[in-house]
Amino acid sequence: MPTVNINAEALFRSLGRRYTEDEFADLCFEYGLELDEVTSVKKQLEKQHGKSAGGDPGTESPEDTIYKIDIPANRYDLLCLEGLTRSLLIFLGKIPIPRYTAVTPVSPIEVTIDVSVQKVRPVFIGAVLRNVTFTKEVYDSFIDLQDKLHNNIGRKRKLVSIGTHDLDTLTPPFTYEARRREDIKFVPLNQTREFGAQELLEFYGKDTHLKPYVQIVEDFDVLPVVRDSENVIGSLPPIINSEHSKITLKTKNIFIDITATDEHKASITLDTIVTMFGEHCADKFKVEQVKIIKTDGTRELYPKLPYHKIKLQPSRVNELLGTELGANRIAELLTKMSLKTKVKSGALLIDVPPTRHDIIHPVDVIEDVGIAHGYNNIEMKMPATVTTASQLPVNKLTDQLRESLAQSGFTEVLTFSLCSTEDISKKLRKANGHENAVKVSNPKTLEFQVARTQLLPGVLKTIGSNKKMPLPLRLFEISDIVVKCAESDTKARNERNLCAVYYGKTSGFEVIHGLLDRIMCLLRVPHVTQSKAKPSYEIRQTEDETFFRGRCAEILIGGKRIGVLGVVHPNVLTNFDLNIPVAALELCIETFI
Description:
Layout: E1 3-7, H1 8-15, H2 21-30, E2 34-40, H3 41-49, E3 65-70, H4 81-91, E4 101-103, E5 110-113, E6 123-129, H5 136-151, E7 160-166, E8 174-180, E9 185-186, E10 195-196, H6 197-204, H7 211-217, E11 222-227, E12 233-236, E13 240-241, E14 254-260, H8 263-277, E15 286-293, E16 299-302, E17 308-312, H9 314-321, H10 327-336, E18 340-344, E19 347-352, H11 362-373, H12 393-407, E20 411-412, E21 418-419, H13 421-424, E22 450-451, H14 456-464, E23 473-484, E24 492-503, H15 509-522, E25 537-541, E26 547-557, E27 560-568, H16 570-575, E28 582-588
């Protein structure tokens, strides 16, 4: 959940009155927000630097008071002073809901996307804010919103990066292209000399703030740039803009460029910026569109500033919230939440503005009704459905087995549910061991590439990290594994497995075999030699690459294989950095439910 820092004096000026800390905290609560902390510029500096910022503690100016407000992660429209105060004023009924308009000029500014950027950062969209009036306060808010969007929806500029330029310093039309490093030279923002691309990467690669953004593109042979018709470079996304087109307090016309890997997220980002700061234009909330010429020759205008309608029955609202609100009252509450609503033929027609990208389903609208009505005002009622809760059978069995295995002298471990591809294939001597595994599409580390299909690798890793413990080690784990399943909606299913290992100077196969017999005794499953009248178990010699040949057996119930036990192969032990024998048992316990 992001936190925005708002200057208290600027906040009160925008709201049209002063609030005490408690009054503003109550207002935030009513709107579904939380006033996290009241601090000051001086206190923030002291916290950052770990020492006193100097000066007399009693001399802090009221203008330095900062309100830190927690904002829901999907409410991009509340990440700046303009959006927050506008929403609160609408909520208080002091201003009407504005209408955001995308204006198409007779000759819109054109931006051509060159095919060279397709493998680097393929998406570009833009907009123009005309006749903007900047103050220091508005300027700071403008920059701060960009930072918030970069870190939030932009995922630290990996998905979306924002460039803002003084349009009067550039000459349209623009081109978005990728160039070789030796062909890029410009003066970066807040610098006084020209940098080549390679020098720029090295220079900002040492900068604490910009280093993460350099890493996004440093491995590419070419780098993306935005240039005008006179070959003046405006920015090198996602790293830095040009000093030539720097925004200042005197800037009147702003060209906004959004480069991204995802067009939907880029559109949300652009809509948020122009709707928030459109109020500072001479024609309030009117944004000039830019024509984007894509690589396939198609042309589109941005921003689109889409409005969409949602139809909702009042009965559905009352059913989910447990209220008895009339249609007109619900319409009033939604209008307070910046969702203009009309009642037609008993149904609610909600007009969702481009500032509310968090509204994607009728349930999101119902949530706003609950906030505006006040959750504390909803009467508590007993559920109409009568039911008796009970523990899931597989969880109940798991708890019972955990206790019994602990009483048998084994210690429980809890390992990661994700592992590397090697852990379940090469290290276990199974070349195709990963074929039935569910893969993570974008793993952050090689250690977490797939969901585990066995518990054994995790337990062996645990032993490898605890080799200094007194021998023997008796460990067990009862947890879920994940395997592919074509019949499932998710194309995968969970299975609850039990794994136990013995690590000592001798193989300990008899210990693991005895533990299996004890488990079957507890589950009241007799050995096949004891009873053939009901399901019974047996072990049968088998071949498994993970175990010694001739020292491995499969566990069968009613002729169906449910697990395996044996002495682990020395090569497997070496792969997991172990040097003395291990006996292991792994079986699926869902068979016994």
